[in-house]
Amino acid sequence: MNDRWTRAEERYRQRTEERRYRRADRDWDDDTDPRGIRGIGARHAAPDDWDDYEDDTTVIPRYTDDQEPPVRSGRSRAAGRVDEWDDGDPEDYWDDDDQPAGRRSRGRAAKPDPRGRSAGRDADGRSGQRSTGGRGGLRGQTQRGRRSRVASRKAAERKRRRRNLLILGCVFVALFVAAGGYAGYKFIAKLGGPEDFAGPPGPITVVSVQPGDTSQQIAKTMFDKGVVASTGAFYEAAVRNSGITSVQPGYYAVPTHSKGVDAVAALLNKANRVGNVVISEGKRLHDSTDVNTGARNEGIYRKVADASCYGSGAAKKCVTYEQLDAAGSSTDLAALGVPGWAMDAVRQVPDRSRQLEGLIAAGTWNFDPTLSPEQILKQLVSQSTASYETTGLLQSGTAGSPNKMNPYQTLIAASLVEREARPNDMPKVARVIVNRLADNQKLEFDSTVNYTLDRTEVATTDADRARPTPWNTYAMTGLPATPISSPSLDALRAVENPTPGPWLYFVTVDKQGTTLFTDSFSEHQRNVLRAQQSGILDSGKRPN
After folding, report:
1. Packing angle between helix 215-224 and helix 231-239, nearest 10 degrees?
2. pLDDT in tens, 43-70
3. d(Cα 44, Cα 77) in Å, to the nearest integer?
4. Hey, which of 195, 300, 332, 479 would disulfide with 230, CB 3.0 to 4.6 Å?
5. DSSP of 337-354, one letter per residue?
6. How many whole angstroms separate alpha carbon 201 and alpha carbon 229?
7. What is the pLDDT of residues 160-184, one digit of tens each?
């Protein structure tokens, strides 16, 4: 038995040496090798050479090789058997977790070689060999280095993916927490109601309600002005108060830092409305005194000054009559809102304090009392201009116009009609003006005499009528230098479209306002006598 082991080992060593150290002088194809073993180039070993020991090697103990699996491609031959070791693909030796898997041995293990090499025989009689030296060893080390780098890259990629997933998760959690917090805040705020002031009210401020404003828009204005703490505080109070629908466009003085319900109540209080002025037809810019009653006839400047006041006590603020009068005398006509169709004529007015006469129309107007006097006048003149132009004023003096007057002259004539006639007689009085101007006759209106007087009445004295002024139509022909009052739209339309007729004279004959028209001077004299008999033309002035 021992001899057979010795012979087998000797033959194994010889075959190994022959594979490693090929001999050029050996006939590799010779089948008569005295040892009965073909070289490495042979495909099969003689089967008879194994007959004398093959059965005895079944008792060779199993040998486990701790070295790395072979990496060299090709076939290894031992005892004439061929075994497939490696196809050069590193994936054959690495599992999914990048761990070396090796190659499983098949059959029986071979006995360790004394030289440090191992050989084995499988159940089919094929033997394999692995080596750590030579070119195969270097190639194995290179392959192992490549596998190590691939494994490192894969590990780094897995680490990067885990880090990215962690970052995305943190961002998602942060957004979720923020959204949840905001939703919770809104929910709690909704349960608690809108923010509202709880302390005492603050200083007075002026808020504007524009035409067509809804409760939501008014609420925003209140919030922007610091009246309420939130739009919701005002809106909720407004929808509970049916009076909110009666609020008119304009300006209102209300306390800041008010509760929502208090702000609504202040808006509904008519006493808090400011910057609202009512100008009656025929009103002049300046004050005058009635001769018969001694009462003061408040002019437009006085009414605007009174409407500009807001606040109370030491905090009360007003624009004064004197400030408005000074502002109305400014030479900067554009800053006062004078329209282009009146600009040239207004520049030529001999008395600058009267240059805006007639440019503030009769009606109800709103202005911001917090503005300067010049800005207030500009607001009023601009609104009045827009109102005048709705009547067709700009077509005055054009081809086909019945009155042959430009827009500013039409405005002057309308002011005369306003002061001289009742509404139902206005178109006829307008015709008298047009006819007299066409005939180059003096208009001789008492209203033009009274315009420059501090003390006025319907009747005028001979002395007043004889005093020449740029407005006294007894002392001059043509129209006055400016309008003598604020005309109504009815008076303006009457001048734009006067009633056709030959009339040159008219006079009011009684206190009921009966007015008689004629184109005969003698008939007019009889009508004047009738007016004197009724007392309507009696003057209240006493000679000095």
Report:
1. 140
2. 444 444 444 444 444 444 554 444 444 4
3. 9
4. 195
5. T--HHHHHHHHT-S-GGG
6. 12
7. 888 888 888 888 888 887 777 666 5
